[in-house]
């Protein structure tokens, strides 16, 4: 570790204290490059914005550290997704200026969840939106030129995971079936 870090994985995880990517992956110090923010969100690529903490961290992980995998870990009972769902439904908006602006980037996740099942509401809508938020972040990864290039060169692979923090189950996004599938405990 004195010679610098050489992680194989860049993990975008929620800042929720119950979702520590090192514990989820059962890793040692130096194994992962963790990027944590509200709702494990990868924002879309943009050149004109002023502050890009997540974007800068991903660029450093991929081009600087040369990680092999990028993993998005969404989770059950995500407060950021709950805030977004509540802010786009009936009632008064919740959250402060920064949280609202950030979680508004996830409004497509709510729209997609409702497009699949227009009867969703409450906790069911939040849970469906949490999964959709992971797929939205995966799509946003593809908007970054340096990520597209690394994928095209087979230098990295990207993964979407959904963790149920209550029962410990992990679901992996399968791009071929366009669905989350249970990860076995083989």
Could you explain how this protein is built, in words?
The chain is α/β, with parallel strands linked by helices and about 190 residues long. It has one domain: 3-Layer(aba) Sandwich (Beta-carbonic Anhydrase, Chain A). The chain has helices at about 20-25, 55-65, 80-85, 95-105, 105-115, 120-140, 145-150; strands at about 10-15, 30-35, 70-75, 155-165, 170-175, 180. It has a six-stranded mixed β-sheet with strand order 2-1-3-4-5-6, covered by helices on one side.
Shape: globular
Average pLDDT taken over every residue: 91
Highest CATH level, the class: Alpha Beta
Q: Count the E strands.
A: 6
Counting copies of identical and different chains, the oligomeric state is: single chain
CATH third-tier fold name: Beta-carbonic Anhydrase, Chain A
CATH superfamily: Carbonic anhydrase
> End-to-end distance, in Å?
31 Å
Overall structural domain count: 1
| Major pleated sheet | 6 strands, mixed
Share of residues in helices: 25-40%
Helix-and-strand structural type: alpha/beta
Spatial arrangement of strands, main beta sheet: 2-1-3-4-5-6
Strand content: 15-25%
Kindly provide the radius of gyration, computed on alpha-carbon positions and rounded to a whole number of angstroms.
16 Å
CATH architecture: 3-Layer(aba) Sandwich
Question: What are the segments in which pLDDT stays under 50 over at least 5 consecutive residues?
Answer: none
Task: Determine the number of helices (DSSP H or I, runs of at least 4 residues).
Answer: 7
The sequence of SSEs as H and E is EHEHEHHHHHEEE
């Amino acid at each position: 570790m004195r010679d610098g870090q050489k992680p194989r994985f860049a993990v975008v995880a929620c800042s929720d204290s119950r979702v520590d990517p090192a514990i989820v992956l059962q890793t040692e110090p130096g194994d992962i490059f963790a990027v944590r923010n509200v709702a494990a969100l990868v924002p879309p690529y943009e050149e004109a914005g002023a502050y890009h903490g997540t974007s800068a961290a991903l660029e450093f992980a991929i081009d600087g550290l040369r990680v092999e995998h990028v993993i998005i870990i969404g989770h059950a009972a995500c407060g950021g997704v709950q805030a977004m769902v509540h802010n786009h439904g009936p009632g008064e908006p919740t959250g402060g200026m920064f949280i609202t602006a950030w979680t508004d980037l996830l409004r497509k996740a709510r729209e997609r969840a409702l497009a699949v099942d227009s009867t969703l509401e409450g906790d069911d809508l939040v849970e469906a939106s949490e999964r959709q938020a992971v797929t939205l972040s995966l799509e946003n990864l593809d908007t970054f030129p340096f990520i597209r290039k690394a994928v095209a060169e087979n230098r990295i692979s990207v993964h979407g995971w959904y963790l149920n923090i209550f029962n410990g189950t992990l679901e992996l996004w399968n791009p071929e079936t366009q669905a989350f599938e249970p990860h076995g405990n083989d």
